[in-house]
Design a protein that fits this description.
Blueprint lengths: L5 H25 L13 E2 L6 E2 L7 E5 H6 L5 H6 L4 E7 L2 E6 L17 E5 L2 E2 L1 E2 L2 E2 L7 E8 L13 E7 L8 E11 L4 E12 L4 E12 L4 E2 L3 E3 L6 E3 L11 E14 L3 E15 L12 E2 L6 E17 L2 E19 L1 H11 L18 E18 L6 E21 L15 E23 L4 E21 L27 E21 L2 E12 L15 E14 L4 E13 L2 E5 L5 E5 L2 E16 L2 E14 L7 E2 L2 E2 L20 E13 L2 E12 L8 H7 L5 E12 L2 E8 L7 E6 L3 H4 L3 E5 L4 E9 L1
Parallel strand pairs: 6-11, 15-20
Antiparallel strand pairs: 1-2, 3-10, 4-5, 6-7, 8-9, 10-11, 12-13, 12-43, 13-14, 14-18, 16-17, 18-19, 19-21, 21-22, 22-23, 23-24, 24-25, 25-26, 26-27, 27-28, 28-29, 29-30, 30-33, 31-32, 33-34, 34-37, 35-36, 37-38, 38-39, 39-40, 40-43, 41-42
Amino acid sequence: MALNKPNNRRGLWTTALLASSMLTGVAAQAQQAQTGSVALEEVVVTAQKRSENLQDVPVSIQALGTKTLEERQITGLNDYVKFLPSVSIQTTSPGFSSVFMRGVVSGDNANHSGPLPTVGTYLDEQPITTIQGALDVHIYDIARVEALSGPQGTLYGASSMAGTVRIITNKPTTAGFSAGYDVEANTIAHGDPGYVVEGFVNQPISDTVAVRLVGWAEHDGGYIDNVPQSRTFPTSGVTRNNAGQVKNDYNDVDTYGARAALRIEAGENWVITPTIMGQQQKVHGLFAFDPSLGDLKVAHYYPEGSNDKWGQAALTVEGKISNFDVVYAGSYLKRTVDSSSDYNDYAFFYDTLTTYGQYYTDNAGNPVDPSQYIQARDGYTKQSHEIRISSPQENRVRFVGGVFYQQQKHDIFQNYKIDALGTDFSVTGYPHTVWLTKQKRVDEDQAAFGEVAFDITDKLTLTGGIRFFKAHNTLKGFFGFGIDFPFSSGEKQCFGPPVVANSPCTNLDKSIKEKGNSPKVNLTYKIDPDKLVYATYSEGFRPGGINRRGTVPPYTADFLKNYELGWKTSWLENRVRWNGAAYIEDWKDFQVGLLGANSLTEVHNAGSARVKGVETDINWAVMRGWTVSGSAAYTSAHLTQNFCLTLVNGQQVTNCPNPEAPKGSVLPITPKFKANLTSRYEWDWGEYRAHVQAAGVYQTGSWTDLRLIERELIGRQKAYGVLDLTTGVDRDSWSVELFVKNAFDKRASLYRYAECNESICGNQVYQVPNQPRFMGIKFGQKF
């Protein structure tokens, strides 16, 4: 039975409550045997660029520590996003996910020429958000994942407009030797088996030097079937089938990676930490299915997949000058993604609706099979440097400030091929290529930032901060058809020789520069040592950029203003921790990336929107061995002006007769309500320590597009919920665990899309599902 039918929502949560009740019953029976004090562990975060107790930080933060990550079987982006209610994702396959927070999302299509992300992702001190989204870092030997909701424009800057996600690794230590490994065997319902092998070692080399080495290898079985199908193109009459690509469970993934970090204690006050990390992820097949063909089935005609390789070298230097803390954090990231994509829907529907097939001929003018596919290579490099200084925390007046520089480069190669296309109609130098994109994009920003905190009284603290920034975006190269192709775009628009190597000529060379600032003011009142409340006004920004289409002007930076009230509280001698925040955010001139005419990406500034929401999390140490934790977010995000594609004197207008989305329209992607609840009980079982755990996740439905016509064509993503179950035992240094994710094999929609412009390809909708029921057994050992 499909999960997204209304009666199943109650069924899921009834089951979750029953599972929780079972844990309660087990706990109650053992309660008499439990002795000793009960309290929650302290959570240390570095959200404000210094180590602090989570409960002392007047920012809305959720932190998943090492223990939580391991207990909930979190290994990647999709896993930890489930337990962060203010975070949403739009994903097409591993390595291709966009992250959003607090409903600040317009439905961007993550194109290489589209807007920068609204959420920044950091690996330790270094940003790892590439132009098309965040790296999908394998989660192992990780200290914690921090999610900072709301604009982080003061300390984190560009692409942290709506929030920041930080992945903090375990660092080398000179305290002593330690090591561990985990091996896992698993299987997917309707699919193939898989495995995971992970290990780490921490080895002191001397009293002042230590090294930490980490490695992992993972194979995820496939669960999407590519089934037989054929198509007849109306103009040429050619019939094509996909017999050569038919295969069951064809979307398997192999991931390999390693991390090496060195700790060098240079004297009493300085620590140097160089780190090298790399990962390769080979993805096969498509991670979406065609609902009209049946559950988890698709019919595609060409090979698909990607080979995503990245490596990062990072250096952090921490020390003291007098009594001031000084930090340098720098990194260089290189990422290369080779991918292949079926583009047959574009060819078929454009031929069916607009007779485009007449233009696809051989050199003699005879119609040919117009089937298309894409061969692409995206090359990213990113360097960042930050130097900051902070005064002692115990001072009544204290500050943190610094300078930041970041440069991102994206070498773009996309080859749209028709194997039978005549060479006379191909792009020069690329036989059988109907369209070529060969571009180079550079996004550069620099900033100076600072925050000052003043303790007005022992309980009342005022904090003010500001970040001044400059941004520069350039896009140059070639895109379009060959010189003899009967359309005007492409080589016919070239105005100079190639500026990007291996392109036929140059028809694009644009840039835009911007500067501005993003301020922050916070007032925090400490009710008592265990409780505080705060009020914050903050701003975030995202730089603008270039539109390839000459008739569409550049898009400018968008800004988010945040008004927030929050609380951090501990109760019952730290047995209960309850935090939360309520906010209103105004999003001005926000950027929207969409497919325009001929499915060419355009970016527009779209008036304004308002987001209202509440987010909260609670942790409860019920008694020794039994903990309950949960979090939830309610988000109401709507346009406050019409979104029109009409331009007057090159400027977007908000007053038009038929807006793409009228005032009051709901922003896409983010559900109105998202929540999770986890109950875990541990007890002594003879010589063993045993545990059981149940974790439920639920979210309401959402649209995938801002525009009304397009969202109706694609359809609404329905509400869903999943339940994960875990049990296991450990003794001395080893542990064994059995787990089931998505225990009732519920089918959720993570994204719905069409392959090209929705008005053309909207009859062929694809749905990216969550992973079907996933069962596994894990054995681990630590020394």
